[in-house]
Amino acid sequence: MSKSRVFLLFAALQVCDVLTTLLFLRHGVAEANPLMRAAMAVARQPLVALALAKAAALSLALYAARSGRTRLLARVNVLFTCCVAWNLVALAV
After folding, report:
1. Model pLDDT for residues 16-67, shown as the tens digit of each residue
2. Cα(38)–Cα(70) distance, rounded to whole angstroms?
3. Global pTM?
4. Domain locations in the chain?
5. Which residues lie below 8 Å from residue 31, measured CB to CB, with a gap of 6+?
């Protein structure tokens, strides 16, 4: 898979993660990630904390893609695919 495709998939998964997280929060489910939970406690809006975290993640992913670490990024994509899938299943139940 090309560098740009791996990065674009990462970006799409980040958007899906933000959307499912916001759905969880809307339904009264607490954030499971302790770092994000702390960031959300500091920020007045959960979306602000999520946006900052995802901007940092996208910056790291862009660096990984540009420096040829597509295999690493592809593995991270598998992890985030599992997270998003888990979120979708949990929302459906």
Report:
1. 999 999 999 999 888 889 999 999 999 989 999 999 999 999 999 999 999 9
2. 30
3. 0.90
4. 3-92
5. 21, 24, 25, 37, 40, 46
